[in-house]
Every structure is written in structure tokens, then in C-alpha cells.
Amino acid sequence: QVQLVESGGGLVQPGGSLRLSCAASGFTFSSHYMSWVRQAPGKGLEWVSDISGFSTKTNYVDSVKGRFTISRDNAKNTLYLQMTSLKAEDTALYYCARDLTGYGEYDYWGQGTQVAVSS
């Protein structure tokens, strides 16, 4: 069965960095766009970034451009999100999600990993 397991979250000071990972199993990883989606406390889901199956295309929400980098290692079935220059407003539960169509139709989600940015 399809499984997505995030890791790498934690508490970091403003300006710090974290790298999130998402280990995928149960499907052909390279065949799917993958996304990172976050949910800040008391707010709705916000798409953060996505990447095509062979990393030829990446997209980011404006608020993280230049600070976050999405990548994937298809040999390891793992998705990454390198986050730098973190801000308080990046505090959220971060989910990885499989995009069924490449147009934001998510059919599988991980359990999420918590990122807290605070001094």
C-alpha cells in the first residue's frame, strides 16, 4: 500500500535551516509529481512546493521562493524540502502528498512533521 512518512521537523530559531524528508513506498515514485503542503496553527492548508517525477520542473509559493528548495531522489524514493532563512510564519505542520495528476489532485498524504520557528 502507498505510504508517505515525513521526518526532519523540529524547533529552530528565526534565520535557521531545516531539511524535511518524505520516504515513499508502495508505488512507482518517479511516476508522480510530489508536493509539500503545510498547515499553520488555526489556518487552512497551503501548498508550498511541487516537483515533477524526474525533477525537471519545480514550483514554489511566492512566500518561500529563494528560501526553500524541493528535491527528490528517485533511487531512494525520497522527497526533500530544504528550508533556509526560516521565519516565524513558516511555523506549520508540513505534509508531503502524492499528486495524482500533476495539477494539485492529492490522493495520498503523509502524517506530517511539525516545524516551529521561534526564538
Strand and helix map with partners:
Blueprint: E1 3-7, E2 10-12, E3 18-25, E4 33-39, E5 45-51, E6 58-60, E7 68-73, E8 78-83, E9 92-99, E10 106-109, E11 113-117
Parallel strand pairs: 2-11
Antiparallel strand pairs: 1-3, 3-8, 4-5, 4-9, 5-6, 7-8, 9-10, 9-11
Shape: globular
Number of beta strands: 11
Poorly predicted regions: none
Report how far apart the termini are.
Answer: 40 Å
Q: Main β-sheet, in a few words? A: 7 strands, mixed
Structural class: mainly beta
Q: DSSP helix count?
A: 0
Helical amount: under 10%
- Which series of helices and strands comes N to C? EEEEEEEEEEE
Q: Averaged pLDDT, please?
A: 97
Report the sheet-strand fraction: over 45%
Radius of gyration: 13 Å
Outline:
With 119 residues, the protein is an all-beta fold. It is built from no helices and eleven strands.
Folded structure, characterized:
The protein is an all-beta fold. The chain is 0% helix and 52% strand. The protein is built from no helices and 11 strands. The strands form 2 sheets. Strands 2, 4, 5, 6, 9, 10 and 11 form a 7-stranded mixed sheet that branches. A hairpin with a 6-residue loop joins strand 5 (45-51) and strand 6.
Give keywords:
4-stranded antiparallel beta sheet; 0% helix; globular
